[in-house]
Amino acid sequence: MTLPNDTANIAETATPDASAFLRLEKTGKNFGQNIVLDNVSLSLDRGQTMAIIGPSAAGKSVLLKCLAGVYEIDRGEILIAGKNVADKADGNQGHWTDKIGMLFQQNALFDSLPVWQNVCFQLIENGSLKGKQARDKAVELLGLVGLDADSSILRPSDLSGGMQKRVGIARAIANDPEILLLDNPTAGLDPVLSNHIENMIETIAKKRMTTVITVTNDMTIARTRYDFLTMMHEGRVYWSGPRDQIDHAKNPHLAQMLSGSSQGPISMRTQNRGQHLVA
Amino acid sequence: MSKTQKAPGGVRSKGLTDYLNDENVRAVIYQIVAIALVILAGWYLVSNTLANLERQNISTGYGFLNLEASFGISESMIDYTPQSNYATALMVGFLNTVKVAFLGIILCTIIGTIFGVARLSSNWIVRKLATVYVETFRNIPVLLQLFFWYAIIPNAFPAARNAFQPLPDVLLTNRGMYIPVPVADNAYDFMGIAAIIAFIVIYFINKWATKRLDATGQPFPIVWASLGIFFGLVLIAYLIGGAPTAMDIPALKGFNIQGGYNISPEFMSVLIGLTIYTSTYVAEVVRSGIQAVPTGQWEAAESLGLKRSIALRKIILPQSMRVAIPPLTNQYLNLTKNSSLAVAVGYPDLVSVSNTTMNQTGQAIEAISIYMAVYLGLSLTTSLFMNWFNKKMALVER
Prior knowledge:
The structure holds two protein chains of two kinds.
Chain A: E1 22-31, E2 34-44, E3 49-53, H1 60-68, E4 75-80, E5 83-84, H2 93-96, E6 100-103, H3 115-125, H4 131-144, H5 161-172, E7 179-183, H6 191-208, E8 211-215, H7 219-225, E9 228-233, E10 236-242, H8 252-259, E11 271-273, E12 276-278
Helix pairs in contact in A: 3-4, 3-5, 4-5
Chain B: H1 16-21, H2 23-55, H3 86-118, H4 124-137, H5 142-156, E1 164-167, E2 170-173, E3 176-179, E4 181-182, H6 186-216, H7 222-240, E5 247-248, E6 251-253, E7 256-258, E8 261-263, H8 265-292, H9 295-303, H10 308-338, H11 350-361, H12 364-393
Helix pairs in contact in B: 3-8, 3-11, 4-8, 5-8, 6-7, 8-10, 9-10, 10-12, 11-12
Domain ABC transmembrane type-1 (chain B): 94-386
Membrane topology (chain B): Multi-pass membrane protein
Subcellular location (chain B): Cell inner membrane; Cell membrane
């Protein structure tokens, strides 16, 4: 990870680490006329973790969905282990999602399936596990996230918010991903459970040398638990760097975000962006 | 002012105005008055009707059902002659109604689902064609559509002499379509019973397989097993019944076609009209059901690298059922009730037969009470079944 340009209004990694495991090179994404991601460049090595912070409508979730292959990017490159996975012509799209696990903001568990099939759906559908094996694997994964075997036959709708999060995480790690993307894993959870979930993610990631990118609104968690911190605003990266640099940062956007002050360069007026009004 | 003020610590005795100002007392009084008015109105209507009927020498009651009907019915699923009684005639009408409603419900579900999915197609032509279909047929009154089909069908085909033969032994004429059917035999009764047994067995095997899948993860080839049980049992029943092969084949005799099973132009008009009309509504129900599933479900499926077809079949459609079943029930009920319009094109449904009965006997109140009760019963049965199905399919909202 290279040091960000602290004084510039828009910080970029000055010399992108060419050897990094995961790299975004000037990635851009549009929704119609709106530019939702603009020139996003980031890099992370295996086993490193990064928290992405920023006000709402900053493009944090879109960035994760682009990484997960839900959205196609319009500009730039996404490189995993040196390979441009966003290049459609290359024919490596199919294998891309095998390397990535994602937890969605609203969990997006499949209501039509019991918990254990939710967890192992990908493994069952791609034929790597069958019948009893798949179920045993699901129970094992549920154990990792602190759920007992009895919960495996419940429906997602029978679970509490915290349990749903756990199932979401179990589903995200089911295929032993090299990159784990977590969209607000602790949103709406109490502080004790938040800490527990973050501990769990840390343990799992450490054990498997997983690269973790987490979108979070919890500044304490962002600055104490993650190796790197990236601040996004209006689709752009405003600051990015290792966590011990945060307090030395002079970036006014980052300072406002960390303090949560209503005074500063980040304006919270609603504005019309194409068809949607964003806060 | 001073009257309503209570002396400190003193209790004032209650007068009549206090009672009338009491909300609870007033509520009871209003209810008593309302019920009394309803009873009075009902008594007035009933006594007048009875008096009028007596003046016209029409006896009330359902005794007429045992009298000879002495009118012909063009098509019947049971044995019927003009010598049969009115009860049998009404039964014929009832079965004709059930036949057209049952087939209509099945067909409109299939056609509606196809057009509902087509309206969400990524193919521009498919999407627009489906939109034109839906917007055309749902915006023309269903009665006019029945007239339309009844004007088209008898005129589109040749007379019996020059019957058009699209398939061997299938004849299309201006008197409807004639298809060959097996000659009645006990074996077919056995097969019907076998089919019912097969459905029950399949239902329980399905239940057991789901339970086992959840408990052990062991999947069960439920589709193949179901097909095997169904065709196996029916085939065994056919063989036990002596494996009859005689067929009743339609053929031209004189000026008319004899033999085979006749699908009348009236029946075709009603079935096609109701099916097309209702299928447009079913298409909209299916479309809204699919669109009601949160986009997050599509995105989650995509992040797992699932094909769109698998996501649609295993994740999206089961969840859209939750939204679609209640409005689908409405459409089934509408189709059943709209089938009473069959009288307009001369299809002998329950209303048509009841009208004839009414005209011949003058027992209007009784005849109308019968068909109202029957439609209510049919609709409630459909509702009950669909509510049960809904409970089975419904997923609890998060």
